[in-house]
Design a protein that fits this description.
Blueprint: H1 6-10, H2 15-28, E1 34-35, H3 47-58, H4 71-85, E2 94-97, H5 102-111, E3 119-124, H6 128-136, E4 140-145, H7 156-162, E5 167-173, H8 185-195, E6 202-206, E7 231-236, E8 249-252, H9 257-267, H10 273-284, H11 288-308, E9 324-325, H12 330-336, H13 341-352, E10 354-355, E11 357-358, E12 373-376, H14 381-398
Parallel strand pairs: 1-10, 3-4, 3-5, 5-6, 6-7
Antiparallel strand pairs: 2-8, 7-8, 9-12, 11-12
Helix pairs in contact: 3-10, 4-10, 5-9, 11-14
Amino acid sequence: MPELSRRTSDLGTENAFVVLGEVNALLAEGKDILSFCIGQPDFPTPANICQAAIAAIRDGKHGYTPSPGIAPLREAVAEELGRVRGITLDPEHVVVGAGAKPFIAYTILSVTDYGAGHEVIYPNPGFPIYDSQIRAMGAVGVPLHLRESRDFAFDPAELEARISDKTRLLILNTPHNPTGGILSRGDLAAIAEILRRHPQVWVYADEIYSRLVYDGRFASIVNEEGMLERTVIADGISKTWAMTGWRIGYAVNAALAPHFTRWVTNTESCAAHPNQYAALEAITGPQDEPEKMKRIFHQRRELIVDGLNGIPGFTCRRPGGAFYVWPNVTEACRLTGCADSEELRGRLLREAGVAVLADIHFGPRVPDEGQHIRLSYAASDADIEKGIERIDRWVRANSKG
């Protein structure tokens, strides 16, 4: 058989889907598994949004659209993103894609050259597709460690130490997957001050959880002086409106929008036509349902954090946003004789019937930060309570003292 390219052989993945495969296999065997591994709302897409998609189909919205998206959606995105961030955005600078994820690749492709040694700084732990796409696009990944002592933000001094004349892109994610941490206005001001000394560096602001902030207001790097022009704002409908499978995301940047449009033309042609009308309804229609979802996520955060902190060997900080917790399980590993968080994850799945993700699914462990696991609290109160009970019972039964 002919050989595969090194790019394909080395391509990473999103381990949440790998673990989901394990879960589905166990479920098929009749096992009772509670899953906290997939980061998607457990609510149905609001009915008004579904009806808008059905109406679009009935009205003949079946063909290609312009590659950057239909004009009404781009206008609505510019208005919504500008409102949340307190800025004015031009609809011409908005590009719609099949989810927000493709814009990670489009941005790296647009600002780095394959094999030139151009560097991309990205958060660690972080969304695994950052590292995967950096490698696939022929750039050099430079992990920037998030510290538990800083509520899973990074030290700006560590950022400056990692910037070189080869640095072309900094990826920021707030609220953050997998930790739920947020970058404060003070953090962002310090980051912007550093970047003003390095004008060759673009910023990719992954703000897909921008409307899921529970303590205070959402803050974006684009509010800092000189940052809007060099920042790609990436957001979408998946998390806020429970629309992960509809695959509509968008990116905004004045200089890069024409290039993103060409990338969309070269890859997906355009986002699905009727789904764009569903997204338009999501953004411009009644907001009662997404606001209700946010309130419920906030309540679940309290439930899962308090529950995890009652388990021997678990310590869990209260995340500022998204719907993830990142408990430290270093002591739980010691108590139960697990070599690390990955062994703990596997045993919780097989022996306690609880599916979580280990820290190594989100990058190499941060030195001197111990062991962590991720749980998504996009699950019912009953499942959260039952999952906490199972973990607690398993740890106590297997504790070696």
